[in-house]
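User: I'm putting together a teaching handout on how sequence relates to shape, and I'd like one worked example. Could you take Na(+)/H(+) antiporter from Thermus brockianus, show the sequence you're using, and then write out its predicted structure as tokens right after it?

Assistant: Happy to. First the sequence, then the structure tokens directly below it.
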Amino acid sequence: MHGAGHLLEVFYLLLAAQVMAFLFRRLNQPVVIGEVLAGVLVGPSLLGLVHEGEILEFLAELGAIFLLFMVGLETRLRDILAVGKEAFLVAVLGVAFPFVGGYLFGLQIGFATLPSLFLGTALVATSVGITARVLQELGVLSRPYARIILGAAVIDDVLGLIVLAVVNGVARTGQVETGAILELILLSILFVGAAVLLSTLFVRLPLERLPVGSPLGFALALGVGMAALAATIGLAPIVGAFLGGMLLSELREKYRLEEPIFAVESFLAPIFFAMVGVRLELSALFSPAVLVAGSVVTVIAILGKVLGGFLGALTQGVRSALTVGVGMAPRGEVGLIVAALGLAAGAVNEEEYAIVLFMVVFTTLFAPFALKPLIAWTERGLRQAKE
């Protein structure tokens, strides 16, 4: 496709996302759902104006990167460390429960061991972009329950990659590749640990004295660079972007970074969410077998994360703990990547892939709809506790 065609597709995505966002805001519903449905509307399943392609996929990835970079910019490291124990428990329990539930259900309905392992793995990782957008939209990123979700999402990503490395190694070679797994663990710990250590230096960093064009230019380069470094290690790029934003969180007011970076995010993030809709293959979701199995897997996926989040964050109170659990529920593209790897390795067939697709779609839609009233209920409880 030539340049004009790509520009038209970006135009259709942005226009549809803006119109649907306006409608959902007027209906007092989460804007992010409108943006996802905008992608369904203009994508191959309905109007066929927009199709998957390298350029749109890259813009969508940049959208996710800048969304989490912006969220990191609004999150101070000391706030994350203050809820570190809860975040760790939420991540561990939120990986264990869905994995075991998905694996056992796969065996129960007749899947072989390997497809069952891939099904359990597809339920493991949280796609925090959806939740982060809702938290940002409602202005509650500074709340302890929001910080637990964000901290747990970073740990969750590392744990999810380890599980995936184990299962994918078994699929390819028939054995666990211990060396590769240990390397992944070590690199992940070093990456996150280095970001934590650097945060103390960044507090005093004089950006105006650095040999760069502007503090904003340095900030943008840092965000993209951290995302690229995370991807090189094997982590999700959004984890690096989030940590990059957190490095600059103490400097955002001094150098007025928030407004211009938010402008970039406002352009790119809707493309990310709309492309979630473009990728949906609606025809694959509605065979009777997929509907039944997909519904059960979706319930397992949601309950596993809700239970893990609830138990891990219970020290924050019942309302906040429940909000954390629901906030960890969306799976997004990570589940599809796991299923696609299983498909490529011959460990998962088309029907089993469609079941994961069903789960991804409905966990992605469930979380924003459930989070908005749940956060309102939680905020009422926090206000009442202060009175």
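A couple of points you could highlight for students: The mean pLDDT is 86. The first helix runs from residue 3 to 26.
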